[in-house]
Design goal:
Elements: H1 9-22, H2 26-37, H3 43-51, H4 65-76
Helix pairs in contact: 1-2
Length: 79
């Protein structure tokens, strides 16, 4: 569904700045805000999922993160 909304210049500028800061489209920013406002998304539930011990289907996601970072930094500055 397409929806057109008129925004005052100040709000439009804030939406533009925030979408650029987050690296998402303005459309995605507005959809996220609407979902939160309408109770369709619960940030607390996401926090509980992240804090739980339940697997997030990427067992290697937090292994050797320091080693990978050091290798990338060394590649940039091979002193």
């Amino acid at each position: 569904m397409t929806l057109s909304v008129r925004l005052d210049p100040v709000l439009e500028a804030r939406v533009d700045e925030e979408s650029k800061r987050l690296g998402i489209s303005k459309s995605d920013l507005v959809k996220d805000a609407l979902e939160l406002h309408l109770g369709m998304r619960n940030p607390y539930a996401l926090l509980l999922q992240v804090r739980s011990l339940a697997p997030m289907h990427r067992p290697d996601a937090s292994r050797n993160t320091g080693g990978g970072l050091k290798a990338r930094l060394r590649a940039k500055r091979p002193d």
